[in-house]
Specification:
Layout: H1 2-12, H2 20-31, H3 33-44, H4 51-68
Length: 80
């Protein structure tokens, strides 16, 4: 098995794993399953599935993540 690993390394070198799924899992952990379950139920209803509600949810989620982050980030600038 070790020989196979060495062969693959010599043939392809270091292969970077795709980071998209990792980022999604990390974001899911930061947001929390409770909020995700609530959002899935809330936004699955046609009545609540409007663009303004989705934007409000994303803004609130981003604010919560920033407030829980170990490093402080400057507030986002709003340009119109």
């Amino acid at each position: 098995m070790l020989a196979n690993c060495i062969q693959l390394y010599l043939k392809f070198g270091v292969v970077q794993a795709p980071g998209e799924r990792l980022q999604q899992r990390k974001l899911r952990q930061e947001i929390g399953e409770t909020i995700i379950s609530w959002a899935d139920e809330y936004f699955s209803s046609e009545e609540h599935c409007r663009r303004t509600h989705a934007r409000r949810f994303m803004t609130i989620s981003a604010t919560m993540i920033r407030s829980n982050a170990s490093t402080s980030l400057p507030p986002p600038s709003r340009t119109r």
